[in-house]
Amino acid sequence: MICDVHAHYTPRNFSEFMGDRFASPVHLPVKRGMARHPFSDSAEDIEGRFRLMDEAGVGKQVLSPNHPPYLPDEAECVTAVKMLNDAYADFASRHPARISSYVMLPLPHIDAALKEMERGFDELGCVGVNMNITCLGRSIAETEFEPIYAEMNKRGAVLFVHPSGSGICSPFIVDYNYRASVGTSLEDATFVLHMIAKQIPHRYPNIKFIVPHLGGPIPMLLNRLDKQGQNQSGHPNLAEAPSVTAKKFYYDTVCYGSKAAFICALEAFGADHLVTGSDYPVLQDYEAYKETFAYIERLGLPKSDTDKILHHNAQALFGFEH
Q1: By Cβ atoms counted within 10 A, which residue in 72, 134, 197, 228 is the most buried?
Q2: What is the 3 state secondary structure string of 279-311?
Q3: Which burial class, exposed, middle or buried, applies to 149 when counting CB atoms under 10 A from its CB (0-12, 13-18, 19+)?
Q4: Three-class DSSP category at 229
Q5: Looking at the predicted structure, is the pLDDT value of residue 26 above 60?
Q6: How far apart are CA 322 and CA 314, in angstroms?
């Protein structure tokens, strides 16, 4: 059974509620291309989702929104997040063998987020937490988010992070229209770098982090980070080498079929730390859902590595049967 750790789902009532509340066109729940694919909670879309899962050999998807509703108004934010979490829990309860979900948090409202995390795990049956890499322009490595990490650490939670489409808040990315094609991978890398700088994985060792898109350029930077990232112009007081921290994370396999990117990540992190993901349905604009996983079987890896990546790692991480 393949477990897809990176799959999106947008209930229609959530789309209607959010309307133009999202900060950027990148964040709209149904973008132009994705509207062609099974994405919403309509009966037709759910049937289409399961059909594609069957064709791809995917036994389960762990759901998250393509962009959570981080809103400055706390009441609106809580309403939107509960709408999502309730819809996801309902979907999972009707199809427990095929669907699980992460709990979304009403950030940046920390007390409300802690309450919703408790509800998600203890009442709704969520299997992990989903956070965006930035929240209203702030890195989720900032000090104000520490209570969230403390609670996840207490629970031994899985945390799946996702790019926000911010282009790392850089005009060099945004103004040149690389926010989606390149900016997302740079966000992934920035998250890992911020975690290293703030030593969050070292201080909260029970959290199991999943970073999307093979960590972006992180696999190529480990040696350089170890050599330059700990000197006096970098972070000389780290408790461990940056590569040690980076290798504690899990990385999903979304890479648009790039063998070079996959092999780089495999050599950097090891087969034990790669988990299957698809970015469903975004990637379907570029490749068939089943191809997102089938290409891994054609890479010529040792069979034991292929089996770990496709059929063991994600399942073991969440405690699913495999």
Answers
A1: 134
A2: CECHHHHCCCCCHHHHHHHCCCCCHHHHHHHHH
A3: buried
A4: coil
A5: no
A6: 9
Domain total of the chain: 1
Single pTM value for the model: 0.94
Question: How many other C-beta atoms lie within 10 A of the C-beta of residue 177?
Answer: 11
Q: Domain containing 185: what range?
A: 2-318
Residue 253 backbone phi and psi in degrees, to 5: -90, 15
Tokens of 121: 């795990």
Which domain CATH number covers 258? 3.20.20.140
> Tokens representing 53?
């899962």
Mean per-residue pLDDT over the chain, rounded: 92
Q: What are phi and psi of 164, to 5 degrees?
A: -100, -10
Q: Which two tokens stand for residue 62?
A: 């762990």
**Other beta carbons within 10 Å of 256:** 13
Spatial neighbors of 293 by CB under 8 A, at least 6 apart, are 2, 56, 57, 58, 253, 276, 278, 310
Instruction: Quote the percentage of the chain above a pLDDT of 90.
Output: 78
Taking only the tens place, the pLDDT of each residue in 229-274 is 777 667 888 999 999 999 999 999 999 999 999 999 999 999 999 9
Phi, psi values for residue 103, rounded to 5°: -90, 130
